[in-house]
Amino acid sequence: MRIHHVAMFVSDLERTKEFFIKYFNATCGDMYHNKMTGLRTYMLMFSDGAKLEIMNRPDAHSVDKAGFGLGYSHISFSVGSKEKVDELTGLMQSDGYKVMSGPRVTGDGFYESCVLDHECNHIEITV
């Protein structure tokens, strides 16, 4: 058994799609639009077969992402090396994204950073 995909609601569907394409080399399928509910989605695919569905609909509501609430915490991307973690973190920071932590070796031995995307989702970048 394996997880087929993870999904998340976002405010700005197009900007979120471009974020994952630019920084994580995602490819994107066609937009799905359910005219009855207003739901719009894109399925993003990554080179290792992982998939992320990004969704938007008129009745979606925001939640406070600043703290440590229950539920979704972060998405972690393995980029293959410490150098790539450093490089991607630096690029995102120079593009105006807030680096929450790292790059650093964590207490459990991972080399990683955590960056907030444009909607304050925690994006972890690791080896």
Plain-language structure description:
There is one protein chain. The chain is of the alpha+beta class. It has 2 domains: 1-58, 2,3-Dihydroxybiphenyl 1,2-Dioxygenase, domain 1, CATH 3.10.180.10; 72-127, Roll (2,3-Dihydroxybiphenyl 1,2-Dioxygenase, domain 1), CATH 3.10.180. The protein has helices spanning 13-24, 82-94; strands at 6-9, 27-28, 32-33, 40-45, 51-56, 75-78, 99-105, 111-116, 122-126. Strands 1, 2, 3, 4 and 5 form a 5-stranded mixed sheet that branches. The protein has a 4-stranded mixed sheet with strand order 6-9-8-7. A hairpin with a 6-residue loop joins β3 (32-33) and β4. The radius of gyration is 15 Å and the shape is globular.
* Number of DSSP-assigned strands: 9
Gyration radius, rounded: 15 Å
Quick one: biggest sheet?
5 strands, mixed
Kindly provide the name of the CATH class of the largest domain. Answer: Alpha Beta
Distinct helical segment count: 2
CATH topology of the largest domain: 2,3-Dihydroxybiphenyl 1,2-Dioxygenase, domain 1
- Classified in CATH, the superfamily of the largest domain is 2,3-Dihydroxybiphenyl 1,2-Dioxygenase, domain 1
Q: Tell me the count of domains.
A: 2
CATH architectural category of the largest domain: Roll
User: Helix fraction?
Assistant: 10-25%
Class based on secondary structure composition and strand pairing: alpha+beta
Low-confidence stretches: none
Order of helices and strands: EHEEEEEHEEE
- How far the N terminus sits from the C terminus, by CA atoms, comes to 24 Å
Average of the residue pLDDT scores: 92
Hey, roughly how much beta strand do the residues contain? Answer: 25-35%
What's the shape?
Answer: globular
